[in-house]
Design goal:
By secondary structure, this protein is an alpha/beta fold. It is about 25% helix and about 30% strand. The longest helix has 12 residues, at about 20-30.
Length: about 200
């Protein structure tokens, strides 16, 4: 297997996603400063990009509906090599100010659990939350579940329908060198189980 010189990390794009932020903080935590991030719209494409490369990794939020497919597709070539906990950016349902009663919603499928689908006449599946914000501002739909930061950037065009905030979640790191060797890989945290409950 060829050894690549630079660390390459593939994750959901475009720039501005929760995935990008999580990758940056994870690599900082790991002490990795020399790396390239490449953005994808489909995690199956991301698998193809890291397959057969020693220094290439794929990072995916565990809330993504295709985690099992990514884990299973090249089960003998690409492996789960790490996981970590890190929050999403602050999330919110934002609507266009000129729409009195929002009826259509732009939504990343992995965030569908935050809303009641019955509240919307139309739901449009979108690749990532930055794209939701972009298309919301273009008028593609009345509202969107996206990052709260877009409200401050476009207060004249958007209003807040529902503030969700940051959500602690887990991230899966895939690589081509199998790490598991029969023992649990994790951070010992006995305080989770034996601390006194007040």
């Amino acid at each position: 297997m060829p050894v690549d010189q630079a660390i390459r990390v593939v994750t959901l794009g475009p720039s501005g996603t929760c995935h990008e932020r999580a990758v940056q903080r994870y690599l900082e935590f790991q002490g990795v400063s020399d790396y390239e991030v490449e953005f994808i719209g489909d995690f199956m494409d991301g698998l193809e990009m890291i397959r057969g490369r020693n220094n290439a990794f794929l990072v995916q939020c565990s809330a993504h509906p295709r985690v099992h497919e990514v884990t299973e597709h090249y089960w003998d070539e690409v492996f789960v090599v790490d996981t970590f906990i890190y929050p999403t950016k602050a999330l919110a349902v934002l609507s266009r100010r000129e729409v009195e009663k929002p009826r259509s919603l732009g939504l990343v499928p992995a965030t569908a659990g935050y809303i009641d689908r019955d509240d919307w006449e139309e739901i449009v599946d979108v690749q990532s939350k930055p794209i939701v914000a972009e298309e919301l501002l273009e008028g593609r739909y009345d509202a969107g579940l996206t990052h709260l930061e877009h409200l401050a950037e476009h207060e004249d065009k958007l209003r807040l329908e529902l503030e969700i905030g940051e959500i602690d979640t887990t991230w899966v790191v895939y690589g081509t060198r199998k790490r598991f060797d029969g023992e649990v890989i994790g951070i010992p945290s006995p305080e989770l189980f034996f601390s006194s409950v007040s």
